[in-house]
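Form 12-C: Joint structure prediction
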Amino acid sequence: MYSSKKMLEKLNSNNFNFKKKFGQNFIIDENIIDNIIKKANILPNSLVIEIGPGSGSLTKKLSKVAKNVLGYEIDINLKPILDDLENNVKIIYQDFLKSNIINDIKNYDYDNLYVIANLPYYITTPIVMKIIEDKLPVNKIIIMVQKEVGQRFKAKVNTKDYNSLSVYLQYYFDIKKIMDVSKNVFIPKPNVDSIVIELTKKELLPLKNEELLFKLVKDSFKQKRKTLKNNLKDYDLEIISSVLKEEGLNLNIRAEQLSLEQFIKIANRLD
Ligand code: SAM
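Section 2 - Result
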């Protein structure tokens, strides 16, 4: 059984020093890990990718329910601590952002692919972007992230947290909160609270040109307080205006008032 006391002893006996630059805040509350595993509902014959196994507390439990676990850990000093994990776990000691994930998973045989991780918070968005941009055939992503960041990821239209990243992520995934996590369950204790969110791959809405949609969304939110008329000066405003009219809207609204479906409708008309 995993115990936080044992983990600390192991880290100490290996003279391990926590590195802030790698976002190293390790979970010391076993209940949190059990809860993540339970909520993840990992189906048989699954491959789980974990980013940043740390001392292996989550990894160990993942290895009991998944067929295989593939971890990416940047800190080679954790190798002696991670070496005695089960045989179905492989750890690659490298920066996840520089990894060739598609190549790394090609020899695994699995029915379901999940990413499950307590992320290093300094690179939360680049990690999620990489998963999307590398076209990882993932069924579900369950990640612990800084609370404010998670709230933006899942923010709905017409709320203050809604931004271009919310639209981008919600194009690919249904996103929901799984649980709140207090800063007191980590060592060292971070300055921020966390949440665990679940991103489930969804059926994509009919869209002619992804690149155009994401450029339109980014430009619409360029200056958040400004209206669409101001942010989208370089676009064909007549077309945009006519789509907005059909939606009972006009160019004087701000980007945060447009839903993903409405952005798609505009992008499809502009293409
Ligand atoms: N999974 C452990 C836990 O929950 O206790 C540790 C989580 S800790 C928040 C983040 C982990 O990510 C650390 O082990 C850190 O060394 C690792 N890490 C940081 N940057 C990384 C990167 N670019 N690629 C892979 N691992 C990274």
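Section 3 - Comments
The domain at 210-270 is CATH 1.10.8.100 (Helicase, Ruva Protein; domain 3). The longest helix spans residues 30-40.
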